[in-house]
Amino acid sequence: MKIIRKIKNINSNLSLRSFTVFYRNYMVWLKYYKPGVIGDILEPLLYLAALGFGVGKFIHNIDGISYLKYIVPGIIASSSMYAAAFESTFGAYTRMVTNGIYEAILLTPVGIEDIVLGEVLWGTAKAFMSGMAVLIIGIAFRWTISPFSFFIPVIIILNGILFSSLSLLITSFSPSYDFFSYYFTIVVSTMFLFSGVFYPISSLPYLVKYFVYIMPLYYTVSIIRMLDEGIIHPLILSSYLSVIILFALIFFYASVFFIRKRVIK
Amino acid sequence: MENYILTVKDLTKNFGHIHALNKITFNIKYGDFFGLIGPNGAGKSTLLKILYGIVIPEAGDTFISGLNLQYDYKKIKYGLGIVPQDDNLDEDLSVYENLIIYAMYFGIPKKESIKKSVELLTFFNLEDKKNSKVADLSGGLRRRLMIARALINNPSLIILDEPTSGLDPEYRQNIWSRLRALNESGVTILMSTHYMEEAEKLFKNVIILNHGNIVLNGSIKEITLNKKSLEEIFLNIAKN
């Protein structure tokens, strides 16, 4: 009951003012966007090229499709995860702790709920840019050709919301920038390597395979792959979508709660 | 309560075993230039932070313009200008952009915010720094920008936490003259300071805090009636 009351309270305080927080971040990004964009777009493309063409030479196909085509959905999901995670950890920490931006915003009618939502939206926008870059290249080179591929942007957005929220939650506990090493090594990199980005999880040992099911990235990769291949299993699709939305909601409300606890004494 | 822009009643805040504020009660009239003085650790910043919503009190009530801070803090913020002790200007934006983005947080339409920003840059003599990076400003200019930023929403009450701390006398005088002009234009000011000279020159009414308690509350004239300077009174309190 206490949790429900807290969630209701957060919902009642959410407003369109969160877009001002988003816009502030966008204004700053416009000043320095060039190196950021190159990193966000080039890095996933390097993975795609190195593994797709390099490793792809030795692996002819997985489940009947070429290795390059196989890894495109995973790279879309993981690049959007990384973009959201970087923005909502290092970027958000700088705004919250180093530059005192949250405290400055809180002197206005913008509340902590709006700040967190604005940050999540901004992290999602960064995730969207990164994921879409890979998707567009994929479509341009005909690596993704299913008509269902046009729904992939929706999944990228959901993935962005999920990982921005999770990363903000981590940021709310972080005592310093160094703390993020734990998150990126233990959580983000583990998901990147084990969520079925590069190989089907059926090849993993029994116990490890079940461990993958608690990784949110697995569900995003699976849905994008399903849409990319054009073979839709409605039950799996809806249950995986529910898992992603549930994870996103839990992380969002938890991050509002803990960021409030950190900023307001 | 109708005559008062700010009413604080039995405000209490503890940080662990430290009693930062102990049942503080006072009022501020509309149009007042109200001072808050006290030694380090007296509870001045805690009190101001409660008023602008960064610290939540354990007990007590605060009313600003008749609205209860606990329930109507968002509404209250529309009429409040705040200059915190720590400089939290947006380093990534220019002087002008700092004002524009702040206006946006208040929901002020773009046209109006541009007009108001230009007005404030002129009032605080910052026009030639309009496109400068905040990081390139001196301490005095940053303080002026902080005060300008706090005025973007035409507040009826402005709260300043030691706004002249660490500034050289020239900058301090400069800020004083602007604060006086604001007060004469009808803005109520609540300000904390370490400088007794500043308190005597600016404030109409004052409270002196020590160890989270109000030890003196009255007009500067009343308090210094027995020919004792504010500094002597302050030192006596600090000693005891």
Textual characterization of the structure:
The complex is a heterodimer of chains A (265) and B (240). Chain A is an all-alpha fold and 265 residues long. Chain A has one domain (13-263). Chain A has helices spanning 2-13, 18-54, 67-98, 101-106, 112-140, 152-173, 180-194, 206-212, 216-229, 234-263, and strands at residues 61-62, 65-66. Chain A has a two-stranded antiparallel sheet. In chain A, β1 (61-62) and β2 form a beta hairpin. In chain A, α2 packs parallel to α5 and α3 (67-98) packs antiparallel against α7 (180-194). The model of chain A has no long low-confidence stretch (mean pLDDT 91). By secondary structure, chain B is α/β, with parallel strands linked by helices. In chain B, the strands form two sheets. Chain B has a six-stranded mixed beta sheet with strand order 6-7-8-3-9-10, with helices on both faces. A four-stranded antiparallel beta sheet of chain B has the order 2-1-4-5. In chain B, a hairpin with a 2-residue loop joins β1 (4-15) and β2 (18-29). Chain B starts with a strand and ends with a helix. In chain B, 42% of the residues are buried. The chains are: A mainly alpha (265), B alpha/beta (240).
The largest sheet of chain A has its strands arranged as: 1-2
Share of residues in helices of chain B: 25-40%
Quaternary structure classification? heterodimer
Beta-strand percentage of chain B? 25-35%
Regions of chain A with pLDDT < 50 over 5+ consecutive residues?
none
Give the tags:
heterodimer; A: 265 residues; mainly alpha; two-stranded antiparallel sheet; 10 helices; 2 strands; B: 240 residues; alpha/beta; six-stranded mixed β-sheet; four-stranded antiparallel β-sheet; 9 helices; 10 strands; globular
Give the topology, please:
The complex is a heterodimer of chains A (265) and B (240).
Chain A: H1 2-13, H2 18-54, E1 61-62, E2 65-66, H3 67-98, H4 101-106, H5 112-140, H6 152-173, H7 180-194, H8 206-212, H9 216-229, H10 234-263
Antiparallel strand pairs in A: 1-2
Helix pairs in contact in A: 2-3, 2-5, 3-5, 3-6, 3-7, 3-9, 5-6, 5-10, 6-9, 6-10, 9-10
Chain B: E1 4-15, E2 18-29, E3 33-37, H1 44-51, E4 59-64, E5 67-68, H2 69-77, E6 80-83, H3 95-105, H4 110-123, H5 139-150, E7 157-161, H6 169-184, E8 188-193, H7 196-202, E9 205-210, E10 213-219, H8 220-223, H9 230-239
Parallel strand pairs in B: 3-8, 3-9, 6-7, 7-8
Antiparallel strand pairs in B: 1-2, 1-4, 4-5, 9-10
Helix pairs in contact in B: 3-4
